[in-house]
Amino acid sequence: MLSQANQNSSDRRRFLVAAAAIAVGALSATGSDAFAASPGAGKSAGSVMLRPHGNQNLFRVRVELEVEGNVNLPKNALISRKSELQLPIVTAASLDYEEQLRRKSSSDPTVAMANRFYHVAKSQGSLNEVEQSYTLRDSVRETIIRRDVTPELMYSVDDYFDREELDLLRLPVSSLGVDELLPTTAVSVGSTYSPSNDAVASALCLSSVEATEVVAEVVEITASEAKIHFKGNVEGSYEGVPTTVRTVGKLTFDRRIGACTWLAMAVHETREIGKAEPGFDVSATVKMLRKPMPKPVALTASAQKLNPGNQIPVERLYVDLTSREVGLGVLMDRRWRMMADVPGAAMMRMIDNDRSIAQCDFRPLATLPAGSQWTLEAFEQDIKKTLGEQLSDIVSAEERVSETGLRVLRVTASGAVEDVPIQWILMHFSDDSGRRLLATFTMEAKNASTFAGSDHQLGGSLRLIERKKPVAEAISARSSNDGETRIARLNKSNESPKPQVQSASDL
């Protein structure tokens, strides 16, 4: 306990040093030397509005992120949020992308959605001193970002993200929300204001903000730009998990194009342990540069024509989950996460707003002779024997051939465990070579409506893949390009039956 307290104290001291350094750097930047090249700097004929006007909608954005701290793991996230283990994490990420903005309307410059192409998206770091690196695949570089939900929602135009790619692209600040940190009324040098809860949530990519003490100050206004410093604490949540953010930073607003073009920010975030993800206590620095572009470089014409009024396409929101130990891949609703992957077993869990809905356990079965298949009747009898007295009724049983060419036996059963009504859905997958896999969904009966056909999605998309390979071979396989993407194939099938900042000025 003492060592943990010392560690937390040390983390806080580092953040305070970073915050003080940014503040000192900001003050020095507004001194007389800083104004020498601009006689009108720091002077204002009166109050001015610093609002995005929507005339510039195409940007090249570069982001550098450095993170250091601890990941907090529970013994069992379904029972307690208490941390049982802390793992040190250090990572650095670089992103370079162009994005085309879509505003809500001509009278409301708030960004409703964006088309984005990632030229670079990569990270390098370590978790518990184990090296990790991630790079975005070519098939998911073109993306759509929707901001009619919080936090903002991203999906690929051509393929499906895996979980690591979604985590790679998740940043502590949004280039589409940074303009919302601007004042909503006329200001002059020295004016202070407090961004709204919604504005802070939008900028910091949070689901909600319950309370914020963030205060911003206008420190400089010229004919071409304005500079703003901000700092404060935020109490909010991310996908139902409480989080506390302490932030200090500064931004530059280009008055000529009506957009924020530069941001430097230090963040200390403490997020509680959730049922889907571990908690963490980390410090981070973010450097963001937004440069206006005259025309797109890589964005496709079809992407640029997308309409914010269109419904979010549910079929594009699947995530590609894999188990290398069991040897399976599946496209599922993003509420599903692979929680365990060990030799001989894997488990994924459906979490909705930090509430556990269902669990699915995977287990490889003994291989049958080529051409042999298990009958539906034999599968039912095995289920009855396995569930025993917990079983009340076999609700349904069916067999079919999946879209991936596997033979699927599916049985739905109801019963109770310790007087709690339970529903099971058991699915037996096999191929012509005799390879077999058992998937078992378990949920409380009251969660059946939220579960909403996840078993059908599993049955239609599950594919058998090779089991875990040596690292070098696995990386080679992941990097290979198999030609057209899965979304393209689906469309075809549908056509026919370090966080110590010395100065933000250094960023």
Automatic annotation (TrEMBL):
Residues 1-36 form the signal peptide. The keyword Signal applies. Keywords: Signal. InterPro entries: TAT_signal. This is Secreted protein. It comes from Rubripirellula reticaptiva.
